[in-house]
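To assess whether ligand presence alters the predicted conformation, the chain was also submitted together with zinc ion. Input:
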Amino acid sequence: MKIRIHGITDGKHNIKLQKKVKDLPDIFPEFIGEVELNGILTKIQNRFSFIGKAKCEANFICNICLSEYSEVIDAVVEVDFVVNTNMYFVQKDSDIEPIDIAVHENDTHYDITTDVKDFLVLSLPMRCLCYNCKDKTFEEVYMKMKTNDIPIDPRWDKLKRIN
Ligand SMILES: [Zn+2]
């Protein structure tokens, strides 16, 4: 996912990018489908600031009822970077996390892929709860399951016939 930075005017620019999850190396396996990124890139001389939203569907297993469900994950993506070749080379040889990422003056694009992946992962829920189990305690759900109040996914019907 690359944002064009070369030859653009100072000011605000709308950014809209899409990429298939399978084309994003090392993304968490929960994510499926496509990552969408929408936002605004602001350029002031050699300084760039991107603020936007990344969206991607992800598969989860409910912590309570263990059913599979999917949910769209929204992540705010904020990145500041500066075109500064000297700083770029200093950062390249350093392990310190920079406040402003420096890019080489010959770079025509800023690769935002890693930022998008990082912000998406940070937005994954700590507790995975499906639609049926949201706002419920384990005991409540378990009692409901025992009394068959929760409709069972029709895909499991075949299993009922196995004896
Ligand atoms: Zn559940």
